[in-house]
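Reply to dn_fold:

You asked what the input looked like. This is it:
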Amino acid sequence: MTELDRHDIQGLVLRGYRMPLAAYLFYRFDTAAGARRWLASMIDPVTTAAEWEATPAWCANLALTYPGLRALDLSAERLAGFPEAFRQGMAARSVTKLGDAADDRPEHWEAAPPFATGGVHAMLMVWAQSQAELDARLAEFGAQADEAGGITLVGFQPVAALGGSGREHFGYRDPISQPAIAGDRSADVGSDGEEPIAAGEFLLGYPDERGRTTTLPPEVGRNGTYAVYRKMHQDVARFRAFLGSYDAEQLAAKLMGRWRSGAPLALAARADDPGLTADGLRANAFDYTEDPVGYICPRGAHVRRARPRDGSPTVRRRRLIRRGMPYGQPLADAAGDDGVDRGLVGIFLNADIERQYEFVQRQWLNAPSFDGLWNAPDPILGPAGRDFTWQRRPVPRRRVGLPRFVTVRGGEYFFVPGISALQILSTTEARA
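and this is what came back:
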């Protein structure tokens, strides 16, 4: 097993920082020279995956879009080494490859940052332990951008944990399950006890589950990965109204496949068991082999669709590393719609956008037909008008015409280069 070069890998790939505050800054490159100066100034501040003795006060990571790489005057040979999905970007593939429909389509996305028009070239991600620390780092990085010149801030997205609860706006605990990566000494097994997955499923330049190494963009690919950024608005008032008051928690659990505490239905079928989540391995050590019909966990439940857990090589090769946080203020209990924008910013890391993220989104989450179900896209993320079947004896319970709870507000595909690649990209050598 090849050990990972943690000093050359950006930190967010191998660890979730678990800091309460973060911000995403989006830039456009106006001149290649200015952009390269900026990248050079960011190499030292970028947090690597090297082991640390204590959690720092802040972390920062950086990612680039394909238009951003072109704006750096990257050589034609290196540009051609990137896969088609990344080169085209999310907006171009939203309908055909992601299955986005209705208001999720790019023509309805927010104007800033300008994802729909390919106007974002770089994303700087900053996490911090306190607001004062975050403000200080943002001021420092802002000054660095101004000093470099030739780049323009075109978007800013703050995010924050909801009161330290580890939950998102609908009340579900998140995230819970993450894969372990082979060669990463910090994790012997995944959060569900699953054997580590080949590093090449998440990092470029390493063998994948089939023993194959992904074709790399020359000299800038190794130790990099691809990050999918997806901003999703959550209609909390509508979700609460749909749940109603009678058996609301049970319905919420059936829609998700987990109780809002994080306890899976597969291990807590009749009632919530919050104690399960105190042991991450125990809360994730389950599959659906004893529940093929869906009497315990509905076949269309979100977590069952996002990861069928059948133990097959196919499912292992669709895994994603998830880094995300809520944005916006929480809606008070029992409050109606207050018009405030709130939701979740998801960052999904994978080595093959088309085979991993796009497949999961199109075939498992957005597909109207799934495991014998019809007109049944994901009950949490899907469009308005879908149905949800709650399998039970003697007669299934069916909810018809579900309203929309989540709407995509924007997104893009990013390349997260290794540190040595950042060094190349920050010089004129990138043009060679």
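Residues 6-231+417-431 form one domain.
Hope that clears it up.
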